[in-house]
Amino acid sequence: MIQLQKPRLILDNGLRLDGRKPDEMRPIKIELGVLKNADGSAIFEMGNTKVIAAVYGPKEMHPRHLALPDRAVLRVRYHMTPFSTDERKNPAPSRREIELSKVIREALESTILVELFPRTVIDIFMEVLQADAGTRLVSLMAASMALADAGIPMRDLIAGVAVGKADGVLVLDLNEPEDMWGEADMPVAMMPSLKQVALLQLNGNMTPQEFRQALEMAQKGIETIYNLEKEAIRSKYAELKEE
Questions:
Q1: What is the pLDDT of residue 90?
Q2: pTM for the complete prediction?
């Protein structure tokens, strides 16, 4: 059995293995309305990580006894397709996928005005088409864009990015080697116009000073992503207006 060894994540010139600077994000592409049979849909790409999301509802809850009298219920599924990783993944939901579905649902509940739709359900499906680090945040943002595409009222869009520590250096938007071998990984998602955090997790170790610096890096990245999200929505409505 071959023993994997940790590679150098920061090169002598200060750049990362994929040629980015420590505070540089991967290219981002967002497309709305990609599925004609869903009420709302979106594809969100961040580097080589690609996620498609679909939204159905609000609609009547079945069975009815599961409905809530004062708000809509969110049913959220995060799933990685068998071909999303280098080795074929078992298509059955894993424990990690079930946990991330719950984490993403809780983040979405902070932004959707669920109180406007009592006794209904909103189904949100996210399929990871290609995984290269950051799948939880890309899935969350794909779901946020699909909800906007469905016209479901929200307090704000959600934008997020991870900050990690690689070879002792804080890096923005981790790639797969940094995700695997780095000393820390801190995904952060916000509702930028409200300046509210929707998701924050930390795996690994950071000093209090590093944590503050990481949060500042994340906020700058999130502002850039937020502008791209708004531009994607403007482009979609511009296309509809031309039609």
A1: 83
A2: 0.94
